[in-house]
Known about the structure:
Porin, 2 helices, mainly beta
Amino acid sequence: MKHLVSAVIVLLVSTIAHAEDDSTKVHLFGGLGVASYDVSEDEVADTFIDQGFSSVQGTIDDSPVMFKIGAGFGLNDNVAIEAAYTNLGTIDVSGTTTGPSAAFTSEIETTGFEASILGRHAVSEDFHLIGRFGIYAWDTEVDVSASSGGLTASDSSSSDGTDVTFGGGLEYKNFRLEYQRYTLDDQDVNTVQAAYIINL
């Protein structure tokens, strides 16, 4: 994975270095969508059982709202470089355990910055097919609280990394509809996003 991330960085820098100044067009964009995490209730239950609990019943909201805001510039009519702050939403986990008996809630939020190359293929004057490949530097914050027998406790932890992101979609005038996948260590996050583009 480290070699792949390094290759993406080299490709980004190389593409910028070979850009023609008179073809550069700056744009801003903002998008909203839904993220789908590859997390199941069985996986959460197995984690608790591995820690010595007898059983677990819980629910997971693993398809939170996500958003992205960023800027880019076109190197020519077919290639652009984009950078963005991306919030992949918050997963809510809650449930109860037995042996011992306890109730718990957890919030898991992933945010970060991405840089990518965007390829565009014109189908007509207003309609384009797009493809994206880049890197995402992410940080995940986990907040957990639990209560049992009138006692409560809470804790938090975090992890981070830099991994590959890629996707594709459609552009119509200033509107973009895109599927994008983020590979976070052993966790893939699939997103569907709608964005609006402002050309400066």
